[in-house]
Amino acid sequence: MPAYYQLLGREQDEQGITTAHYRSTLHSQGAWNAHEQHMAPATGIMCTELEQFMPRTDMRIGRISLDIWGLIAFGEFSIQTRLLRPGKTIELIESTMQAQGKTCIVARAWRMMTQDSSEISGLEDDKVAHPEELPVWMGMQSWPGGFIQTLEARADEQCRSGKGIVWLHNDTDMVEGSNTTDFVRLMGMVDTANGVVPRDQTSKAKWAFPNLDLQIHLYRWPQGQWLGLEVVQQYGHDGIGLTSGILHDVHGPFGRSEQILTLRKMNA
Q: Ranges for the Acyl-CoA thioesterase-like N-terminal HotDog domain (predicted)?
């Protein structure tokens, strides 16, 4: 079974801080540069460490905030995870990815106490068409890189520049030799929201729009193998943009994502 990453080793110090060592495979290759990782699987491997760190049965992750410090270097890297704010009902944990002596990504996750709130539950985000009801979509193939080649995509016929609904699926494990949870598999595709409905879709696109962060809020725990992205992408007039998404699994909406963009004119 192909995988995005290989685990090289893991240790834990006396303070409970864990450090995991990984090597990226071609399947995690980015779309902007051949020598970097795509942020989508990088998010997935960060979420692998966040999910596995000191798990509690009475809590789940409710928010993940990832800041991209620079190029996510391809090859060997480490992820260090620690507890920042312990508590009975909420906890804040942090994972830091480092490669080639530099910090690449800092991710923080709020773990929150769970309880039965069904008597007041209610969602305002609407369901969208099931992926099996939609045609195969080749729109993602305009992007280069090994990661994009691992994806199966389906899209709503109304999908256009700046707005649309796209479903994604992959059969690639996050870590070689380990089972991939639904949470990690779906989180490992959320970053692609920034590439499904770019505002400049011409064959000679003049602008790059890399995101500096990825914010994910989960009002329901995700399930299944398909990630639905209901995306709106907006560009301001001063070089800054925003990609916003409602996140779906096959059971319905489960959360939202936001990515701030730096709009950069590409060399002719």
A: 30-112
Residues 6+ apart with CB under 8 A from 70: 102, 103, 104
pLDDT tens digits, 92-143:
999 999 999 999 999 999 999 999 999 999 999 999 999 999 999 998 888 8
Domain boundaries, the chain: 3-113+133-265
d(C-alpha 98, C-alpha 76), whole Å: 9
Instruction: Please report which confidence band the pLDDT of residue 48 belongs to, taking 50, 70 and 90 as the band edges.
Output: very high
Token couple for 88 = 């009975």
C-alpha distances in Å from residue 113, one per residue of 48, 110, 116, 259: 20, 10, 10, 26
The type of residue at 224 is G
User: What amino acid occupies position 243?
Assistant: T
Q: What is the third-level CATH fold of 3-113+133-265? A: Porin (2.40.160)
Alpha carbon distance 17, 24 (integer Å) = 22
Q: What is d(CA 142, CA 266) in angstroms, rounded to the nearest whole number?
A: 17
Closest CA to 96 of 41, 20, 38, 147: 20
DSSP 256: E
